[in-house]
Specification:
globular, 3-stranded antiparallel β-sheet, single chain, 163 residues, alpha+beta
């Protein structure tokens, strides 16, 4: 890899470590069962139609299922869910085993319990973006009635708002 590419890759990582981001878990129904991962790239894209997006690495264990899925779930985590965020970020973890609380939701998408809010979206695009894909989905179901303060990711670790 050329030195300038290493420098710009390092610069990107360094800058985004300073960017506080909300923490979400993305889920989908896979051929062999539910899949999911922790994401800090969740973004509202459009109000009309109601679209959201997230990025997923093509080398991620969840990518094969998400590359084929028609629907995905996104779950906004609360500050009390640091361990859940860590579980879904951990490679090789059985993410849906206890103590993870989940159920089959709309369109067969795994829906996590106790989250601040969740959406199920119909995937409308998977856009190549380097070693990732930007997945765009249209909202079809959800619940925004959860309570609590958001979980944040900053400087490589999870944080509570204001602390």
């Amino acid at each position: 890899m050329p030195a300038d590419l290493l420098t710009t890759t390092g610069l990107l990582r360094s800058v985004f470590r300073r960017h506080a981001a909300g923490v979400a878990v993305v889920t989908a129904r896979g051929e062999d069962g539910p899949v999911g991962f922790t994401a800090t790239s969740l973004t509202s894209v459009s109000a009309e139609p109601p679209l959201f997006s997230f990025g997923v690495g093509t080398g991620a264990s969840s990518w094969p299922a998400i590359s084929e899925a028609g629907y995905v779930g996104v779950h906004v985590l609360g500050e009390h869910q640091q361990e859940l965020a860590a579980t879904f970020a951990r490679s090789g973890a059985d993410r849906f085993a206890p103590p993870t609380v989940w159920r089959e939701g709309p369109e067969g998408v795994p829906v996590l319990g106790g989250v601040s809010a969740w959406l199920v979206g119909r995937i409308v695009a998977r856009v190549p973006a380097g070693d990732h894909r930007l997945v765009i989905a249209e909202v079809v179901h959800g619940d925004a009635t959860g309570t609590g303060r958001p979980l944040l990711y900053h400087q490589g670790s999870f944080h509570r708002l204001g602390g």
